[in-house]
Amino acid sequence: AAIILPYLFNVNFYMKFAITLVSLLFPFAMNHLILEYKEDMIQKKLELQIPSLFAHIASKPIGYPFEAIISEIAMDKGALGGEFKKAQGMIIAGFSTEYAIGNIAIENKSQLIKRAISLLLDGYKTGGNYKQAYLDFGEDISQMQRMQMENASASIMHKYTLLAAVGLLIPSIIAILISFVSGLGINEGGILESSAQNGQILPSIIVSLQIYLVLLSAIASAIIAMQEGKIKKAPIYFCILSLLALSIFNAIKGMQLV
């Protein structure tokens, strides 16, 4: 499909090569996004349970066995319960409690989870009264999550508006205009027709517009990646956006609208 796709459009060799290259990378880019999306969902589920986790721990009296707390949390059917169930299994297998709980932080990329585990281990190692610290931490995280949820809708709207504009709307409008102008030149004659027949003006404009779409895709990809705080995802968004923009542009450009 990556080899056939460029030949469906009337483009020069360089654009065919570019479309082929991006098409070959497209499946890998989509697979990476899907895997990262699933991983992010797992991390978010874990993070959402942190306030209730600390509220539960803070409700226990001073001196309550830490291993008993782990067992209680492990009985929960949520994502965080699953993590503590693994830790409980490691403790039963002979690993130290500190190592088993610390392994939760190692296996998860979330900085929030790492902070939470670090605080739990501080309380476990010192044996001090961390009740108020746990309550404060859980409340702070809960407030932060509420603020994030309020801001998330605006960020998501901005992200998908930009994706739709660069990947769909702008290429479609430009391609319709090019098809319209090309149709006028062919049907009515004049300067545009004679220049296009000589292979000078219109083909050069089309190539320039496609380069513009590629550059626009690169800029939009960088903006979206920076907005997410994951600049390494910019090349992945670029593969998807540029292929989509070029495909739509060439598909609509090939239609005789006039």
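Above is the first protein from milestone M3; the second protein from the same milestone is given next.
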Amino acid sequence: GGDGSNNTPVGNPVNNCGNCNVPVYTAPVLEEEDVEYTIPPCQKLNNLFNEPDPNLKAIITTLKTNIDVNSTGEIGAVLKKGRPTQYLPATEEAQINFVTNNFAYTFIHTHPLNAYPMFTWGDVLTLYELKNTTSKYNHLKGLESFILICKDDNGDFQTYAIVMEPGFFNSLDLIFKNKNIPRFKNMEPADIAKALDSELEKKYKNESNNTSADYEKAFLQHLSSLASNVSLYKANVSLDNWSRVAVNTSTQNTMEIPCE
């Protein structure tokens, strides 16, 4: 039973956390205008910093304290339109449950110290499911985002975000709904994400062996090999602005392009 909401467990399968029993939901059929409805990512994310309620900076500051005291689990929060922020209790494993409904528009979660400090395909699937829900409600359209708080290899806290750029949702539809990748033809979305995370784990592991690991590049390059209009955003230390992280085609190094 229930009220029709989607319960989307989020984990870090690239760290063997399990994430094996993820419920699967069929993406609703969307009108073309709904699919491409979007707010510019920089504007969307900076609005989260600029709006007094919810106070995203305070939320991030609160959640990140869990990383040092809970080395294997996660903690999270849900931003809801016209409702108080919902804080989710800390878990013991690198997995947390989010519920999509007619109020939720942004999910925030931490990665533990034993996880790679970057998004996973499981996280991407969660954003995809969130978009499936927000697109049904006029007051939520275009607001969806998924935020990650983590600690990098240097011991510094980082805050990242992924959002739905125009075209990104369509390409995820092809992967998770239409199963256009032959090797995933008979697999459910959760299993597809798990398989892709196995591939992504190899990329992250290779980076971890480098003197200066670039997990941002590994994430962007792996997603871009399968999906279009992939983007990654990173908050500054003072948590009052974002930059788009991109791979320089000449140097193959990542660079940050500040939001204006």
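Note on the second protein: The CA atoms of residues 184 and 192 lie 6 Å apart.
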